[in-house]
Queue: 2 jobs
Job 1
Amino acid sequence: MSSHYDLVVIGAGSGGVRAARMASTYGAKVAIIEEYRLGGTCVIRGCVPKKLFVLASRFPEQFDVAQSFGWSFGEPKFDWATLLANKNKEIDRLENIYGNILDGAKVETIRDRGVVTGPNSVRLAKAQQELTADRILVATGGRPFVPNIPGAEMGITSNEAFHLEKLPKRILVNGGGYIAVEFAGIFAGLGVETTLLYRGDQILRGFDADVREIVAEQMKARGVEIKLNSEITRMDRCASGNIDVSFSTDEVVDFGEVMFATGRVPNIEGLGLEKADVNLNAGRAIHVDAYSQTSCPSVYAVGDITNRVALTPVAIREGAAFAETVYNNNPTAVDHSIIPTAVFSEPEIGTVGLTEHDAGSSHAKINVYISTFRPMQNTLTARPEKMMFKLITDGETDKVLGVHIVGPTSGEMIQMVGIAVSMGATKADFDRTIAVHPTAAEELVTLKSPTYQLENGIRLA
Ligand code: FAD
């Protein structure tokens, strides 16, 4: 191991790996330090294993629908241990790929904990060795936040949910964000009696109001109990081994597991940032400029640690922009304004651009187009679930400001729509596009007149 580098990256997750690879490709001498597993949250205990669990949880519905198309088969059985073992195998495979990619890009991978000791130095906690670098990139991500409630240590977070020895009979998922909603769908789909608890009025704060409502409604129809305006006040182990959960509404209910999905906090503890005078912002995330540079000119930060938009493709883009700016003499700032995103809840959500509320507050006139219908795969069954397509346009310029889709494959659809919205497409551009038939997505280009309009944020009759 050498001891001086052009760049030392702390954290081999989505952002760190992309930055390290690209910087090395541009000729920098790079080391990346990882204390846990290569690939970071997304690969090891985030997006990837979560999506595998989501896919597993969707089979019961497909078995149900298959019968309406004439299929018959024995009673399907689910084995959690098989899913876990296969998931672990896949994650090991992906971690190896990350290692090979870093090796192939000639990045030195150091399995240790990195601690900043100055503007140009990082200490390896286990090896007790000091590295020096012209620049340091902090890409240490975030971790689950667990509220300070008596007995909370009996609960689990998404980290542990990926390794549960067995599925409980009954689970309480605490939280209203996308991770909580996704895990509620996973557990319910796998046959666990699931309660989703959120302290606010409606789940999925920040999403379009119609999306929030339709998703909550359909989750309930699929058997998830949603408890709103309530909080956990304490948790006690009961004789059966279950956890008695006391709620602010004075009820006490016992659950086999309680999962906290109550937000994430940046991983800054013990990172030594004060040794380099790196400033934090109000959320105790690292404060950076548009080029991911911190208050210490030789220290940069990308990804969840900066709490801009905590998504993998954003961390990757920030890592790439950093390398492009610093090692390819091409100043590149990431545009965080239009980010297509999916929630792999049941039903799935795909969304890009402004919500109706935000569009109405920032534009004098907006048009809102809404279409709801039963997806074709449900038409031979009695299943009542509907899809929703919602398009919000600027009443003055005709520009598409937001697209919100609820239902099967909306995550896939929104990636494509995201291109058009990023390009500044108008409703006329959508209308000019010939429909693909018969698909659900054709709805996007066949929405005729507005369902309603808003002027200065007020809905017209
Ligand atoms: P991370 O990927 O978290 O990587 C940080 C790395 O730094 C980790 O490997 C950590 O071990 C290491 N580290 C920390 N401190 C040190 C230290 N001192 N020394 C050495 N190493 C250190 N995003 C999506 O876009 N789509 C999804 O569907 C999605 N699903 C998610 C589901 C879950 C359950 C969770 C938790 C997250 C999900 N995310 C999803 C978010 C996504 O995982 C993160 O936004 C992304 O991983 C952030 O990348 P990062 O590089 O900032 O940090």
Job 2
Amino acid sequence: MNDQLAERRRVVVLGSTGSIGQSCLDVIAHLPDRLQAVGLSAHSRWRDLFDQARRHQPRWVAVTDPKVADQVDRRQLDPATEFLIGEDGIAKMVTDPDVDVVVTAIVGSAGLRGTWLALESGKTVAVANKETLVMAGPLVMALADQRGATVLPVDSEHSAIFQAMRSGHRHEVERVVLTASGGPFRGKSKKNLVHVGPEEALRHPTWRMGPKITVDSATLMNKALEVVEARWLFGLEPEQIEVVIHPESVVHSFVEFKDGSVLAQLSPPDMRLPIQYALTYPERLPGPARRIDWRQLGTWHFEEPDHETFPALQLGYEVARHGGTCGAVLNAANEAAVSRFLAGELPFLDIPRVCRAVLENHHYSPRPTLRELIEVDRRARREVARWQTTLIETTT
Ligand code: NAD
Ligand code: MG
């Protein structure tokens, strides 16, 4: 092996068929001397997974839905690529000593196990799967610490904060400000949102993402989850985290230092940039992400979030303050509620409502184990499944 090849980072992409997964493979394809995809996983879209395998020639592919794995036509896979199934397949890839970086791009709390095992093996983990940090942030960060693993953010806001923070010491940070596009319903009142369905909620103005996070952006639950994510990733107090609506999605967050200096990270809304930064960190290399054209930039806007119309955001602050089991409960209730909303079973405005109800009624524990968190996650989902809508036409 020559020197250049020896420097290539060997990357496992969990959830490679999703929006983040595809962007990640695009970054890898643009930096063939530096990055190599050695493992890929998909839940059910095995044909897309096999197409990716043809292009990237990984050592392994894993299909995580065992029912789908039975239907796969393995003859379509290059014999040099090993076919793996389920969580055991994920475990085999992320714990292999030859793997350098694991990208967690699985959606929802299903991403927890792969993230956990990768950290346990001391890997560098590029975390897109924010749900894992919301659910079990303190345990995840403690595990990384114990095992000498590195957690790098992929979420654009957290990548921006991470990048800006490099120009000072942690104790010099006064606060961070997370930007939010405001989603497709920015400027609407609750009255306007009583009857909105999946089609309208899935029409995001600036980002192209998977369906769950797109609905989270419409409720502002995504920003609530990101407040909790920032709390654990950077060890910030909830009072140090603010949210501002910035519809153009060019300023990806900013950090204010003790002396009043504010540093921001700017780029067009293109996830390939924060993904690449995590994959090549601490180096910066030319890559495929779109660049800012100053001649095309118009005016940027910054507004206070509308807490009345989007009560989900406040839930994020409450969860960041209380910690314990709250993150797992909010995350699971939201996942279950979004899936019922997408199935046409739950009105849009019921998403934050059911999340609050489940959160307020759960048995709080301040220092849960991972097993307890998995149990409260299950219970919260059951509660949401039982929830009957009591939607009253709102007049606000
Ligand atoms: P997506 O729906 O496009 O893709 C999800 C991926 O996860 C797919 O590869 C799918 O096969 C896999 N998957 C789904 N259910 C699974 C299960 N039960 N077990 C194993 N794998 C499963 O989602 P996305 O938009 O790419 O988001 C992925 C993660 O990244 C989410 O946690 C999201 O919050 C986060 N994120 C996404 C963006 C974005 O721009 N899309 C930005 C920031 C953070
Ligand atoms: Mg984000």
